[in-house]
């Protein structure tokens, strides 16, 4: 029987010999594989030791927390004072494709979770390591449980603060763990979303450089202009101004100008020229019989334009006279004035007291009335360029007239021209045309006529025209209000109808037929309240202080770097005599009572590091 070769192994199993051939190549391959595995394990071991020794994992936690906080600050710096952002995240494919909405609060919540979780990595490790440092001297065994509980949550941290009386480095970790409960709230409170009006479109309002009047060349008014005038005089609804505001809230950042009408009213009583005399007036007895005549004084009052109020005592007397003449006016000599309304009003009284001494018979009375007071008013209406500041709030137009320019000249009998300074208007074309001049002057001259009389005997009132009836009770303030409304209504009519009457031949004169503004809509804006960033920033700084302090304390006390390694408690148990004290304990509370009275110290014995009583140095 020959011996096996060096590359063969003889294996015997119950008398059966089997030769197994092991080649030299297989042996080398196995050794190489074993060497690679050993090298890999050695590298991994060295890497883990480096991570533990230099606290790399804890510093990574601090870095991750800092990065998430920096991301929050950068995100809010970009989104602050901007409309509230909304992002869409698409996941899945085909029929499973879904879109998820992401808001700023969602991202803040994610960053807050990352920050809290990362921050607790160095805090928990530091708290656990400080536990081993703490027992470098004799301490109650119950403190071991206090440190473990503090590293797990806020309640344990509160107990640790009470146990250490807030005078140890570990108390910083306890404060961080408790305050970390407010991180999510703090990050959410960083932003609020007040509603802020933002421009979302364009608004327009009618304007024009031209009053086209009647485009067929007649000296008559359009129905729109007539309606605008009568609407004011007879208390009908005024025409509404044309505007476009899609959101109901619009502004015009720059004041715009448009052709319109302006008005002024004055008290011209001082301009009345009296012409006085006497007139025989009959006297009556108690039975109504004429007993004689007296010469009663009276005065007629005349204005420079020829309008006259007769003050002659009579049964029928005149309360109001009206004139529409533009000649010889007191305050409106400009020929470009469209119309001037002049009125004289009188107040009458029966048997004025100053007549009584003129009566031949004291017991007789007179039925005649005498003029006891009088006043005159003059109101003018004229073309002008108007400048407006305008807003629309919840669909309600608020157009405020801020300035006017009315220096005009008559180019011909049909129209007037206004050349306004460039500083007055933001329009490129600053020439304004009133082609309706003659039609308006003719219309108002026919309108402002009439008288209002009454009979003292029958107390009946006789207006000679509708306008006389409307104007009779008015005072100066009423005239001012009426002419202001009249100018506004007629201005609206010009602007409303300008686009309708503009033709290819004259549309260039009208300038832009609409003033352009901005339409606003309330949207949630991101407003950052940076003060709330103080909590997470402070906690991060405290965590850094805790980690650096723990490292320095561990080096100074020459404590083994166990951190939160739970198996260390099994590697360094209590000595047997200390364990005997807990042999009969059957509840955690009973064990804690014993541990509170039992001081131990972590030190090296002849059997390795153990928790021993300070006087016990044996294992």
UniProtKB/TrEMBL annotation:
Name of the molecule in the record: Uncharacterized protein
Record keywords, A-Z: Membrane, Transmembrane, Transmembrane helix
Residues passing through the membrane, by range: 54-79, 100-121, 141-162, 169-196, 530-555
Keyword Nucleotidyltransferase assigned: no
PANTHER family xrefs: DUF3176 DOMAIN-CONTAINING PROTEIN (PTHR35394)
One family name in Pfam for this protein: DUF3176
């Amino acid at each position: 029987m020959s011996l096996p070769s060096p590359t063969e192994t003889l294996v015997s199993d119950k008398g059966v010999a089997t030769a197994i051939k092991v080649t030299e190549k297989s042996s080398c391959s196995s050794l190489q594989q074993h060497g690679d595995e050993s090298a890999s394990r050695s590298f991994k071991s060295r890497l883990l030791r480096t991570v533990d020794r230099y606290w790399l994992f804890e510093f990574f936690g601090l870095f991750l927390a800092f990065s998430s906080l920096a991301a929050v600050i950068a995100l809010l710096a970009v989104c602050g004072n901007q409309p509230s952002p909304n992002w869409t995240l698409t996941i899945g494919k085909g029929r499973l494709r879904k879109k998820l909405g992401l808001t700023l609060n969602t991202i803040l919540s994610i960053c807050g979770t990352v920050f809290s979780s990362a921050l607790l990595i160095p805090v928990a490790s530091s708290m656990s390591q400080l536990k081993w440092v703490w027992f470098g001297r004799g301490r109650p065994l119950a403190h071991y449980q206090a440190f473990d509980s503090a590293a797990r949550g806020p309640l344990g941290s509160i107990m640790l603060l009470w146990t250490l009386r807030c005078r140890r480095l570990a108390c910083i970790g306890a404060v961080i763990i408790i305050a970390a409960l407010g991180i999510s709230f703090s990050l959410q409170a960083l932003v609020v979303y007040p509603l802020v009006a933002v421009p979302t479109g364009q608004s327009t309002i009618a304007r024009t450089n031209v009053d086209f009047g009647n485009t067929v060349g007649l000296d008559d008014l359009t129905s729109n202009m007539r309606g605008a005038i009568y609407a004011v005089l007879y208390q009908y609804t005024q025409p509404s101004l044309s505007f476009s505001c899609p959101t109901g809230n619009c502004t015009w950042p720059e004041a715009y100008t448009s052709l319109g009408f302006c008005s002024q009213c004055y008290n011209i009583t001082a301009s009345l020229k009296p012409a006085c005399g006497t007139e025989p007036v009959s006297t009556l007895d108690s039975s109504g019989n004429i007993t004689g005549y007296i010469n009663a004084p009276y005065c007629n009052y005349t204005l420079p334009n020829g309008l006259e109020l007769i003050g002659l005592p009579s049964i029928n007397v005149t309360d109001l006279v009206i004139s529409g003449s533009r000649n010889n006016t007191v305050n409106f000599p400009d020929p470009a004035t469209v119309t001037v309304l002049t009125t004289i009003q009188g107040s009458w009284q029966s048997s004025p007291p100053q007549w009584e001494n003129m009566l031949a018979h004291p017991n007789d009375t007179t039925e005649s009335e005498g003029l006891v007071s009088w006043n005159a008013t003059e109101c003018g209406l004229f073309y002008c360029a108007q400048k407006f500041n305008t807003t629309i709030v919840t669909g309600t137009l608020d157009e405020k007239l801020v300035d006017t320019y009315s220096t005009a000249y008559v180019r011909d009998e049909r129209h007037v021209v206004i050349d306004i300074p460039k500083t007055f208007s933001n329009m490129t074309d600053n020439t304004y045309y009133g082609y309706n001049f003659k039609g308006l002057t003719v219309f108002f001259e026919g309108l402002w006529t009439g008288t209002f009389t009454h009979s003292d005997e029958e107390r009946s009132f006789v207006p000679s025209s509708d306008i006389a009836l409307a104007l009779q009770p008015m005072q100066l303030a009423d005239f001012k209000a009426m002419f202001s409304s009249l100018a506004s209504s007629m201005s609206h009519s010009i602007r409303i109808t300008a686009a309708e009457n503009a033709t290819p031949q004259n549309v260039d004169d009208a300038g832009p037929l609409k003033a352009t503004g901005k339409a606003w809509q309330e949207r949630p804006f991101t407003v950052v309240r940076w003060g709330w960033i103080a909590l997470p920033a402070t906690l991060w700084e405290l965590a850094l202080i805790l980690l650096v302090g723990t490292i320095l304390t561990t080096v100074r006390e020459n404590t083994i770097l166990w951190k939160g390694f739970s198996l260390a408690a099994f590697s360094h148990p209590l000595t047997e005599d200390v364990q005997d004290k807990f042999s009969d304990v059957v509840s955690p509370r009973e064990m804690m009572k014993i541990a509170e009275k039992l001081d131990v110290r972590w030190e090296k014995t002849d059997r390795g590091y153990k928790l021993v009583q300070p006087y016990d140095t044996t294992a």
